[in-house]
Design a protein that fits this description.
The complex is a heterodimer. Chain A is about 70% helix and about 0% strand. Chain A is an all-alpha fold. Chain A has one domain: Helix Hairpins (Orthogonal Bundle). By secondary structure, chain B is an all-alpha fold. Chain B is built from 20 helices and two strands. In chain B, helix 12 runs antiparallel to helix 13. The chains are: A mainly alpha, B mainly alpha.
C-alpha cells in the first residue's frame, strides 16, 4: 500500500469524524471545527490521490489544496464572527433548536 | 472603434468590474451608494455586451492573462452562460436601484451591503463563465460566503441563526462538491469541463464523484428535503437581500448542476426519476407550507422551495426531446428570478409601509400602494404560469414534453403545482383587499421602490414574448 492510499484513507476517516461532530454537537464553535476537520479530510484525499502511483508527485492537487485552504480560512473567519454575534445577541452560541442543550455535553461523563 | 468594442474582453470585465467596485466602496464608505449603484449599472452593461458577443459570434473562450489551460484559467461563455448572465444583469440592476432607496435611512447597512452585493455579483458572473470544475468550486464558495454575510446584515437573532445555518449547509455542500472534484481529477487527470466530457466513460468511477457533486449542489439549491435552511435565511434577510438570494443565488447551484449533467450525460433512469420526484415533493410541500404561513416574507420564501421543485421536473422528461424539457426548465429558472425578485421587493415595500408583514393584517394595501400590489399580482401570474408570462412558456414546454411521452404523472404535477401557486398568491391578494380591525402605523414608501418592483414584475410577464429569441441561444448547449 503506497503512501497516497494511506493519506486518502486517513482523509476519509477525518471526513466521517467531522460529519459526525457536525450533526451531533450543539456548540457552534464545535460545528465550525467539525467543518474544518471535514475540509482537512477532503484536502488529504486530494493530496493523496496525487501520489498514488508511486512515481512523481502530481503538483496540481497541491495547488488546488492551497486554494482550498485559503477558502477554508475565509469561511472559518466568517463563521467565527457569526458565532460571536449570535453569542452576543442571544447569550448562547447555539442554534435555536439547541438552546436548551448543555453545550459542553458533560452530563454523560 | 466598433470592432474594438465588439472584440473587447467583456467576459473578463464582467468579473473584474464588480470586484473593483466592491474594493472602492470599502475604501470610500461615505460614497458607498453612488459608487455601488454606478458599478452595478456598468457590470450589467458588460454582461449584456457578452450576451451580444455570444449571440452574434457564437460561444467564446477567453484565456486570462494569455496563459491558457491547464496552467492558466480559461473563461468560457456559451448560450446557457449568457442567458444566466443577462438574467443576473437585469434582476441585479433592479435590486440595486431598489436597495439604494430602501437602505438610505441606515448608513451603516449601506456601507456593508454594497461591497458584499458586488462581491456576490462578481462570484455569479465568474461562476457562469468558469470552464473547469475547480474554479467552479472557488466561485461557489465566494458566492456562499457573500450570501451568508448579506443575510447576517439584518443583525437580529433570527437572521443570525438563519445565516449560521445557511453557512454550515453551504460549506457542507461545497465540501461534498470538492470531494467529487478530487475524485474526478484522480480518475481522469483533468478538471477542464470539455476534456472531462470527452474522457468520462461512465461506470462507478464516474458515478461516485458525480453523486458527491450532485448531492452537494442539491443541498445548496435547497431542493426538498434539503430545503430546511432556505425559508429562515430568505425570510429573515432584508428585502433586497431576500430578492437576491431567492432570485439569483439558488439559480447558480442549479446552473452548475445542469452544466455537470450536460457534460457527463449520466446513463440510466433511476437518478432522473429520483430528482424529478424530489422536485414534485418540493412543489407540493413548499406550496402547502406557503399556504400555512402567517408572515408574507415566509410565504414568498416557501414559494421559492416550491418553484425550485419545478426546475427538477425536466430531469425525467428529457428522454424524448431534450431541447424541449431543458429549455422549459431554464426558461422557468429565468422567469422565476424576475418574478421572485419582484415579489420580495414588493413584500419589502409593504413591510416598510405598514411596519409589519402579517398576511391577515394587510389592511387594504390595494388603496395605499396600488403599484406594489400590482407588482405582487403580476409576479404571481408568472409564478402560477398564466399566459403570456415567462412562467407560462417554461411550464408549457415542460407540459408538452410530458404529454409527448404520455407521462401523465408529471403533467399532473405541473398543472397541480400551478393551481397551488395561484391559491397562495390569491390568499395574499384577498387580504390586501380587506380591511383589518386593527390600527397600523403608516410610513411613506418612496415611489422608486414601488416602480422597480412593478417593472421587474412586468419583465417577468413580458419574458413570454422574448422566448423566440432566447431559446435558440441554447442550441448546441443541450445534450
Amino acid at each position: 500500500m503506497s503512501g497516497g492510499f494511506l493519506f486518502a484513507f486517513a482523509g476519509l476517516g477525518l471526513l466521517v469524524i467531522g460529519a459526525w461532530a457536525l450533526v451531533l454537537r450543539a456548540h457552534l464553535i464545535r460545528k465550525v471545527l467539525a467543518i474544518n476537520v471535514m475540509g482537512s479530510g477532503v484536502f488529504l484525499i486530494l493530496v493523496g490521490s496525487g501520489s498514488m502511483d508511486g512515481g512523481a508527485v502530481d503538483p496540481v492537487p497541491q495547488a488546488m489544496v492551497i486554494t482550498g485552504i485559503v477558502v477554508a480560512i475565509s469561511a472559518t473567519a466568517l463563521a467565527l464572527a457569526l458565532v460571536l454575534r449570535i453569542a452576543n445577541a442571544t447569550g448562547k452560541p447555539a442554534l435555536p433548536e439547541d438552546q436548551d442543550r448543555d453545550l459542553m455535553d458533560e452530563e454523560g461523563r | 472603434m466598433p470592432e474594438l468594442l465588439a472584440d473587447a474582453p467583456w467576459m473578463l470585465w464582467s468579473i473584474a468590474l464588480p470586484l473593483i467596485g466592491a474594493l472602492l466602496v470599502f475604501l470610500l464608505p461615505r460614497r458607498a451608494a453612488p459608487i455601488g449603484l454606478s458599478t452595478a449599472c456598468l457590470t450589467a452593461a458588460t454582461a449584456l455586451a457578452v450576451l451580444f458577443q455570444v449571440a452574434f459570434d457564437g460561444p467564446r473562450i477567453y484565456r486570462v492573462g494569455g496563459w491558457g489551460a491547464p496552467l492558466g484559467i480559461d473563461l468560457m461563455a456559451d448560450g446557457l452562460s449568457v442567458i444566466m448572465l443577462a438574467m443576473t444583469a437585469v434582476v441585479g440592476t433592479a435590486i440595486s436601484v431598489y436597495a439604494r432607496v430602501y437602505l438610505a435611512g441606515t448608513p451603516e447597512k449601506v456601507r456593508r451591503f454594497w461591497p458584499l452585493w458586488l462581491f456576490l455579483w462578481a462570484a455569479l458572473n465568474a461562476l457562469y463563465q468558469a470552464g473547469d470544475v475547480f474554479n467552479l468550486y472557488v466561485t461557489l464558495e465566494l458566492l456562499g460566503l457573500s450570501a451568508v454575510a448579506l443575510v447576517a446584515l439584518t443583525g437580529s437573532a433570527p437572521a443570525l441563526w438563519g445565516a449560521m445555518r445557511y453557512l454550515l449547509v453551504s460549506l457542507l455542500g461545497s465540501l461534498s462538491y470538492l470531494l467529487g472534484v478530487a475524485l474526478l481529477y484522480h480518475a481522469y487527470g483533468t478538471v477542464d469541463l470539455a476534456l472531462l466530457g470527452e474522457r468520462a466513460d461512465g461506470g462507478l468511477i464516474l458515478a461516485v464523484p458525480l453523486g458527491a457533486m450532485i448531492a452537494g449542489l442539491l443541498l445548496k439549491t435547497g431542493l426538498f428535503p434539503f430545503h430546511v435552511w432556505l425559508p429562515p435565511a430568505h425570510g429573515s434577510a432584508r428585502a433586497p437581500v431576500s430578492a437576491l438570494l431567492s432570485g439569483l443565488v439558488v439559480k447558480a447551484s442549479f446552473y452548475l448542476l445542469l452544466r455537470l449533467w450536460f457534460t457527463f450525460v449520466p446513463e440510466g433512469q433511476g437518478l432522473p426519476i429520483l430528482l424529478g420526484s424530489l422536485g414534485a415533493a418540493a412543489i407540493f410541500w413548499g406550496s402547502v407550507q406557503a399556504l400555512r404561513q402567517r408572515r408574507l416574507k415566509l410565504l414568498v420564501a416557501y414559494s421559492t422551495v416550491a418553484q425550485l421543485g419545478y426546475l427538477f421536473i425536466a430531469f425525467p422528461l428529457a428522454g424524448l426531446d431534450p431541447a424541449l424539457a431543458w429549455g422549459g426548465s431554464i426558461y422557468l429558472a429565468v422567469s422565476h428570478a424576475f418574478a421572485k425578485g419582484a415579489m420580495f421587493l414588493a413584500a419589502g415595500s409593504i413591510m416598510t409601509q405598514g411596519g409589519h408583514d402579517d398576511i391577515d393584517e394587510l389592511d387594504r394595501v390595494v388603496d395605499r400602494m396600488p403599484l406594489t400590489l400590482a407588482a405582487f399580482a403580476l409576479a404571481g401570474i408568472s409564478l402560477a404560469g398564466l399566459p403570456p408570462s415567462g412562467g407560462f412558456v417554461g411550464k408549457w414546454m415542460l407540459l408538452q414534453a410530458a404529454m409527448a411521452q404520455e407521462l401523465w404523472f408529471w403533467a399532473f404535477v405541473i398543472i397541480g403545482g400551478g393551481v397551488l401557486t395561484a391559491a397562495y398568491v390569491f390568499r395574499v391578494l384577498g387580504f390586501a383587499f380587506t380591511e383589518s380591525p386593527h390600527e397600523h402605523e403608516q410610513h411613506e414608501v418612496p415611489l422608486t421602490m414601488e416602480w422597480t418592483a412593478l417593472l421587474l414584475a412586468l419583465g417577468a410577464v413580458l419574458l413570454g414574448f422574448v422566448a423566440p429569441w432566447a431559446l435558440p441561444l441554447l442550441d448546441g448547449v443541450l445534450p
